[in-house]
Design goal:
By secondary structure, the chain is mainly alpha-helical. The chain has a domain of 38 residues: Histone, subunit A, CATH 1.10.20. The protein is 39% helix and 4% strand. The model has no long low-confidence stretch (mean pLDDT 87).
């Protein structure tokens, strides 16, 4: 499928991207080439292929969260701040005045 420069300008407008004429020419060629590769994939007979959901073989990759005491001492970390701190929190100026 070959795209035209008008197609690229339309895609750029929908994407709210400003393209120079040089970029329009470049992307016309590049995107057309990508779509030609996709068209070739459509020719492959996949009727005998089973759908693949994932290929790693992993069943359950999540682990339980374990709370561990960090190596850093809270008081020592707070003392490195040039700002005042109260109740283990650094006091900063209000962000919105």
């Amino acid at each position: 499928m070959a795209l035209t420069p008008a197609d690229i300008r339309h895609i750029a407008k929908l994407s709210r991207i400003n393209l120079s004429e040089k970029e329009v020419a470049k992307f016309t060629k590049e995107l057309s080439s990508i779509l030609e590769c996709v068209d070739k994939l459509k020719e492959v007979d996949t009727r005998k292929c089973k759908p693949t959901k994932q290929i790693t073989g992993l069943k359950q990759i999540f682990r339980k969260d374990e709370v561990k005491r960090g190596l850093a001492d809270v008081e020592k970390l707070l003392e490195t701040s040039p700002l005042k701190f109260t109740e283990n929190q650094i006091e900063t100026q209000a962000a919105h005045g």
